[in-house]
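tmp note - Syntaxin-binding protein 5-like
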Amino acid sequence: MHSGGTAGAAGTPREEIQEILSSDCFQICKTVRHGFPYLPTALAFDPVQKILAIGTRTGAIRILGRPGVDCYCQHESGAAVLQLQFLINEGALVSASADDTLHLWNLRQKRPAILHSLKFNRERITYCHLPFQSKWLYVGTERGNTHIVNIESFILSGYVIMWNKAIELSTKTHPGPVVHLSDSPRDEGKLLIGYENGTVVLWDLKSKRADLRVYYDEAIHSVDWHHEGKQFMCSHSDGSLTLWNLKSPSRPFQITIPHGKIQRDGKKPESCKPILKVEYKTCKSSEPFIIFSGGLSYDKVCRRPSLTIMHGKAITVLEMDHPIVEFLTLCETPYPNEFQEPYAVVVLLEKDLIVVDLTQSNFPIFENPYPMDIHESPVTCTEYFADCPPDLIPVLYSVGAKHKKQGYSNKEWPISGGAWNLGTQTYPEIIITGHADGSIKFWDASAITLQMLYKLKTSKVFEKQKLGEGKPTAEIVEEDPFAIQMMHWCPESRIFCVAGVSAYVVVYRFSRHEVNTEIVSLEVRLQYEVEDIITPEPEIIPPFPDASSQLPSLKSLSGSTNTVACEGMMKDSIPCLSVKTRPVRMPPGYQAELVIQLVWVDGEPPQQITSLAVNSAYGLVAFGNCNGLAVVDFMQKTVLLSMGTIDLYGSSDPYQRQPRSPRKNKQFTAGLTELTDSPVSLELERCKSPTSDHVNGHCTSPTSQTCSSGKRLSSADVTKSNRRGPGRPPFRKAQSAACMEISLPVTTEENRENTFSRSRSSSVSSIDKESKEAITALYFMETFARKNDSTVSPCLWVGTGLGMVLIISLNLPATEELRQTEPVMVSPSGTVLTLKGAVLTFSCLDCMGALIHPPYEVWRDPNSIEDNEKMRKRKLVMHSPSSSQDMGDYQFAVICSEKQAKVFSLPSQTCLYVHNITETSFLLRADVVTLCNSICLACFCANGHIMTMSLPSLRPMLDVNYLPVTDMRIARTFCFTNEGQALYLSSPTEIQRLTYSQEMCDNLQDMLGDLFTPVETPEAQNRGFLKGLFGGSGQTFDREELCKLGECANSHLSIQPLPGSGGIEGMKGAAGGVIGDLARARLALDERGQRLGELDEKTAGMMTSAEAFSKHAHELMLKYKDKKWYQF
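out:
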């Protein structure tokens, strides 16, 4: 819904601007996912293609090769991935899921697709094994049975190894689930089956009987062969390793408990924790490697998860930072019957991926080229900059490289498969992530890759809070007091500004030189001077123990601690954190220019910052919260303005508000008092730390665990928490003036069933009852401050949570020389514009509809010793509108709130266009971005819609229900950038990038890496001899004996062929490989399998009927067996 107007007032356009963007320019698709796979469960490696696959609990698969080769695919069911198996050097992958389905993935296309699926209906899959160069996949189940699947047709063979046939008839107990399957290295016709209870069976596939059975009284976790096929090793639940010889299966050839303490009386060493996996790898020129996870002694309680490497007599224990999920040893040969020659171990941890170099005695790790540490500290906010100045990336990399860790292996990263090139997209992109520990990371995101450039630790400007001092604390958040809420970066001037959760702002300048200097700090009082709506006073103040030593606190979602102060202990004019007072060494990179802290006022904690803007040309930084606005001159280090929101209006205030009345106990006054007419459960107002937030201002702390209102709370008053926070949350997301509420239950990181609900409260929906008005958006610009202005001047645009827009005039000194000494005059202009909902973003267009960039200062090194005085002079770039009188001296002001967008003509302030974006929901993010040499307004709505509108006419061009906001992480981190790109945090560990540009969607195939590249399979050294001697009939046996489809036991299974996405390309790509027959035989096999399934079901029904008939006949026989003929 939009309307146009062409009023004839001065400064109003007389004719409509020709817009070049149309709906054909837009299409949405995901491009690439970066970061560590969230909740990993499985690992696989192709030793010939040299690519790695990781499966997760959410049903995702990440496939990694050389840097740039990083592919994400997802099972539609979302079931956890149990196991992954590559078809080595065939460009295919088999996944086994927790819903007992096998999937065959085609990797010969850039976006892998499922070619076939096979679901087990009556048995649960526990283990899979696919021998090298075999077409038969062995599948073990929870019942102890082993099935065989033909990989080419993905149809079940009729051959089943039942558990009761595999174990001895005299054995009365069930052996448990199948935990291991592998064929003998010396004979492909022999299959080793490991059962959980300690039984191992070597099954002869041809004769259909067990060649040998071994029994051990401890549960088995894993098994691995010696390459000669004469011995195998098992790991057990008591921390022991047993080595078995095929010639003497009655007892283990060797038993060791590697980490068990040897008893003095010669008894067996004490048992240890289970060894969850063991790998037994041989070397030609040295002792074999025995590598295992777990198995540590029980008495070492605090010991971290470990990987143990036994090589000869040397035992090395590698301690890990996180629990081990899985590990794989990388070997030189894919053939199981050759010396394995291990060279590395890939260790998949719960939150990291590391690769250990086995070729060096100290076992160093390889430097990981993938961005696996995005989540090193939880991400609290993100910013994305596309098409930024090209010199930034090398400059940031050069200062960041100096802080890199040392001691990595000097070998090349071993996961080097696939192929990738830069493609046609060449503009530089930078992603910035803010974290809970106060760190900031700059990433090179060019050409759909991600590489860490530089890390800035903002906490270094503050003193460390010493625990246990017993002194009263002024902190307003106990956990993660340095968490980053907001970031504002000017790439051209390299000025960087952050707002932290403890109500502070730090301004940084970039320098290539180290400097020792004191950190300058300012303190700002922002107090709200309007009477709060009084809520009933709690009758009981709970008793606090030891109130004299430390003030008790309740942590609120706004991050404030509401302190009941004892007499004489009221906090006033003190900041939340202490800035370092001594000179600080600042390395090259971003160096703190100024720290600004909000202070406690009359016992009330400072409210968190809800908006932030900086301008290098003006030398000003502005920030606001629910109390008001502050403007600071960071060149002269002075506070220019510190004013309550209402005072900014002057006589223009559209709302009637009472003056503040005196209060008896100021220390008990609300820091965040809001009205509420009905009690709201505290549970609704909770959020988890640090990955969820209430969108409309309820939870503004990225780390808070519980929430309370800003007033003091008694135990009887806890459930009366306020419904609506006072300001928009810190992550550039809007509060809703209509009190749209998004509530999430308290969850652990593992609970992925986050709910997302919205509720409307009529009692708080009328904005005339609002007691506080947060500053939600700020924007510096050269524009017309008043209706009768004839020239543009420096201005600060201010947007509030009630949809009000104010323009602040900035009167800067006339010359550059005076700028350092003369004060900057800041005053409200009296201009007030209105929108529905909290204001999100501003932008300014010239009279031709082109985007006007705010003025900036060209970067110069503040610490350079080589520059002379002339070079040190500031160079400003002012983007003034066209001076041509023919076009008229006017601008377009684009303003977007959470409900609607408006375009005003300046200086007339006529509303030319309005578009009501949403009635039932609200926007979380809105940005004016460039695309195809034009501009548009991009919006992300809480209901999951992504929308774009043309400028200045606000014509809707894209509206796609694309991304359900199932987690507040998405709402908090979603951001748009130029060239049709956007990103959000899809999980606590991963960044998902997407595009809304049709052009980029079309070019995406060229930008993605190839997972499969043609590689010659290495020749076997002694394959022919062994095959002829031991397994000469293996292949013949496979084809003739196993593939008896008529005997297919489909009463247990059903076959579900699924067409792959882009399946035709997959078929072509797979021709000649192991999947080569698939395209030709697929339909016939599917039909045949379906007929066989129907036939099998009928047969099963007949068997059931026959069994019932036999049972009844037997009962009848028993009943009448002893009766004489005359008794009938």
